[in-house]
Amino acid sequence: MADRKTKQPQSAETVRDGVTIDDIAKRANVSKSTVSRVLNGSAVVNQQKQDAVHQAVIDLDYTPNMFAQGLASGKSMTLGILTQNIGSPFYAA
Which of 1, 9, 26, 50 sees the fewest Cβ atoms within 10 Å? Predict the structure, then answer.
């Protein structure tokens, strides 16, 4: 019989890409809600906490996930175009 290796499932930590607000919250020692409020400017947050969040954003090289923001807000800010023939001179730039 051949010796088969079983593939172990990967944890969420090894599968996901990018930095999340959870990572920022842990680094800044604040809640995820506080991170969200600071990044969205939606509420008054203590200046010391704001500074900690902004520093964590810089340290972790955080960039917002536009797809996740679109899902959460219901606004994707994308435009879809349907056409029968994309090769038409009308669409040439």
Answer: 1
Question: What is the helix (H) or strand (E) element at residue 34, kind and residue range?
Answer: helix 32-40
User: Is 38 in contact with 53 (CB distance < 8 Å)?
Assistant: yes
Provide the residue type at 77 as one letter.
M
Q: CA 53, 36, 71: angle at the middle one, nearest 5? A: 140
Q: What share of the chain has pLDDT > 90, as a percent?
A: 43
Residue indicated by tokens 């797809």: 67
pTM of the complete model: 0.62
**With respect to CATH, is domain 14-74 assigned 1.10.10.60?**
no
Domain boundaries, the chain: 14-74
Residues 54-84 pLDDT 10s: 999 999 999 988 888 888 888 888 888 888 8
